[in-house]
Amino acid sequence: MSTNLTCFVFGIPLTIIWAVMLRRGIALGRNLRKIHRDEDPFSFWILTGFQGLIALGFLITPVLSWAGLR
After folding, report:
1. Which residue from 49, 61, 64, 66 has the highest number of Cβ atoms inside 10 Å of its Cβ?
2. What percent of the chain has pLDDT over 90?
3. Helix H segments across 25-68?
4. What's the confidence (pLDDT) of residue 2?
């Protein structure tokens, strides 16, 4: 299996999990500690942004490669 296909296959569930956690207002911090949007909004948005970049990167990067844009 190619690297791009592996990244794409792992990117789909990672993106779904990220979207569900964003909707529920939960982010994973250090040592898998849950950070709630209501309790600590600054850390929540920083961690959610970082985790979203990783999840969407696994999904978008192979598509760009297959389209010849990377």
Report:
1. 61
2. 80
3. 41-66
4. 82
What is the per-residue pLDDT for 15?
A: 95
CA distance 58 to 13: 10
Nearest partner of 12 among 70, 62, 69, judged by Cα: 62
Alpha-carbon distance values, 49 to 18, 28, 64 (Å): 10, 11, 21
pLDDT in tens, 1-17: 688 899 999 999 999 99
Report which of 9, 40, 59 is spatially closest to residue 28, judged by C-alpha positions. Answer: 40
Of 61, 57, 59, residue with least CA distance to 49:
57
Residue type at 2 in one-letter notation? S
pLDDT at 69: 86
